[in-house]
Amino acid sequence: MQNLRTIAHAALIAGGVAAAALPAQAPAQNFPTKPVTIVVGFPPGGPLDWMARVLQPKLSDKWGQSVVVENRPGAGGQIAVQMVQKAPPDGHILTPHTQQVALIPLFSKQADIEPGRNLQPLGTVFFTPYLIVQSGALPTKTLREFIAYAKANPGKLNNSLATNTGQYLDGVAFAKAAGIDIVPIGYGGGAGVLQAVASNEAQIGLTTGGTAGFIKAGKMVPLAVTSSARFSQQPDVPTVKEAAGFDFVSTVDFGYYTTQGTPAAVVDKLTRDIGQAMSTEDIKDAIRKQGFEPGLQTADQWLAKTQAELRKAKEIAAAAGITPQ
């Protein structure tokens, strides 16, 4: 009789544990329970808009639920981020961005963005390194030659940087790593960075695209990529390590975020479903045609990398005298 009571008691406990686990599992099992919105913080046509629109039908088919892409450009993507931050924490609103969203508060006092505290990462889907380019008007043709030329002309060459961006900080960090004294000049976005180098207004710059025409015309010379290994989209361009003998690795990682406080099971499901959707051969081919490289990171991996980069960026900003405005 005692054994029967013990067994019954154990069964009740087990049943209670199972029942207690159901609420945590249920959100993921039932997700999504309503249309999902992907809010893009930039106008149509850019890489973040592209990654949202290529994902949209994949998730809609997988979930049997409507997925809507909505463009809310403004404030460097902050409007879309704020929409996600203020939404109910249930995973039904997403925004595509890069890890550099975490750097915005280094430039803006009004920005309150901190992945892991008030913005939940969902992992990455592809990445790109920077391409370091020099003006075609210079006598140098390799990164090692450029560095020697810059050291022979301290303070006389300009470094083309995109104001208030991670690229600005990376450009400053590169000059420090190379041991060269070049003047940081800020421009309003990637197009300005390219035009400055192509016109020889600036002599070097870091970019993530748009260089093919300038290189073909001889207005720019590719010097190196900032990935740890050669980039599949530019296999003939050496890494910084190969080209100049020192390490300098920096990539821009593209992924998704949702509202902080979203149940862990839903975060896991979103990360898994997005990763699977963006890993089919047709999508990987499309990613490469866009000039990027497929690269999945989990939410935890991306958060850890972002936090490490943020710590480094704060040091760079402080050393360069950059303060939020």
Structural overview:
By secondary structure, this protein is an alpha/beta fold. The chain has two domains: 35-127 and 252-317, D-Maltodextrin-Binding Protein, domain 2; 131-244, Periplasmic binding protein-like II (D-Maltodextrin-Binding Protein, domain 2). The protein is built from eleven helices and eleven strands. The chain has helices at 2-30, 47-63, 78-86, 143-152, 166-178, 190-198, 212-216, 240-244, 264-277, 281-289, 299-319; strands at residues 36-40, 67-71, 93-98, 120-129, 131-135, 158-162, 183-187, 204-207, 220-225, 251-258, 293-297. The strands form two sheets. It has a six-stranded mixed β-sheet with strand order 2-1-3-10-4-11, sandwiched between helices. A five-stranded mixed β-sheet has the order 7-6-8-5-9, sandwiched between helices. Strand 1 (36-40), helix 2 (47-63) and strand 2 (67-71) form a beta-alpha-beta unit. Helix 1 crosses helix 9. The longest helix has 29 residues, at 2-30. The chain is globular, with a radius of gyration of 23 Å. The N and C termini lie far apart (75 Å).
